[in-house]
């Protein structure tokens, strides 16, 4: 799947802009700065494909990429900006809710969690939304290269404990480092297996 072409399709700001749900789709969610763009770029092998969402003004766009003309990869806006205006946050939450609850072709959501920080309350909010929307999600730890094995073990305990409370959580975690390439082949294989 990832050996084929990856192309940017469109950025969507409202439900009527969504492409037809005619193929399997996976989405990526995570707090701003979690390493989502780096991960998508590592997965697709294309630097600069996903741009870091560094400003709250860009938080509303849902970006669609086509994988080998057979799947969609969806980059959801980063959440948890400290200074994002309330109106923007609300508009984004509405769109996110509509997207997650109404997308028949969505096979799995990957919720990115910074390995240094574990699951935060904003992550729990999106996980609860995924539970309610009955979208299976899988936690992906990012930046694992920044931790020692003992530190990582502690975070894994925290993450597993919190995931156990979410009915839509897929139990298997994916540990990644975009910097070192760890976990990238596994994540590609998981996505390719979601027909
Ligand atoms: P986004 O806002 O979630 O898209 O986050 P970015 O992909 O822009 O990454 C945020 C910061 O974390 C950047 O400075 C990246 O260089 C850094 N980063 C991302 N992934 C990794 C990783 O796997 N290891 C390390 N050490 N740093 C990373």
Automatic annotation (TrEMBL):
What InterPro entries does the annotation carry? G_ENGB_dom, GTP-bd, GTP-bd_ribosome_bio_YsxC, P-loop_NTPase
Q: Which residues form a coiled coil?
A: none
Pinpoint the EngB-type G domain residues.
22-195
Give the function comment from the record. Answer: Necessary for normal cell division and for the maintenance of normal septation.
Annotated TM spans: none
Source organism lineage? Bacteria, Pseudomonadati, Pseudomonadota, Alphaproteobacteria, Rhodobacterales
* Name this polypeptide is given: Probable GTP-binding protein EngB
Q: Which GO terms describe its cellular component?
A: cytosol
- Give the record's GO biological process terms: division septum assembly
Write out the GO MF terms.
GTP binding; metal ion binding
Which HAMAP family does its entry note? GTPase_EngB
Q: Which gene encodes it?
A: engB
**Similarity comment text for this entry:** Belongs to the TRAFAC class TrmE-Era-EngA-EngB-Septin-like GTPase superfamily. EngB GTPase family.
Q: Which cofactor does it need?
A: Mg(2+)
Organism equals: Salipiger marinus
Keywords (A to Z) from UniProt: Cell cycle, Cell division, GTP-binding, Magnesium, Metal-binding, Nucleotide-binding, Septation
């Amino acid at each position: 799947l990832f050996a084929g072409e990856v192309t940017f399709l469109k950025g969507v700001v409202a439900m009527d802009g969504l492409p037809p749900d005619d193929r399997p789709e996976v989405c990526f969610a995570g707090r701003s700065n979690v390493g989502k763009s780096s991960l998508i770029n590592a997965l697709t092998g294309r630097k600069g494909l996903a741009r870091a969402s560094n400003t709250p003004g860009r938080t509303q766009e849902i970006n669609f990429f086509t994988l080998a003309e057979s799947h969609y990869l969806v980059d959801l806006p980063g959440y948890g900006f400290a200074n994002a205006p309330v109106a923007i946050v609300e508009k984004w939450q509405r769109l996110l809710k509509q997207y997650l609850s109404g997308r028949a072709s969505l096979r799995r959501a990957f919720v990115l969690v910074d390995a240094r920080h574990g699951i935060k309350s904003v992550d729990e909010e999106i996980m609860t939304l995924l539970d309610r929307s009955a979208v299976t999600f899988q936690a992906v730890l990012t930046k694992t290269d920044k931790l020692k094995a003992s530190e990582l073990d502690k975070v894994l305990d925290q993450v597993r404990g919190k995931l156990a409370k979410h009915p839509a959580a897929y139990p298997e975690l994916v540990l990644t480092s975009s910097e070192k390439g760890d976990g990238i082949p596994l994540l590609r294989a998981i996505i390719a297996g979601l027909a």
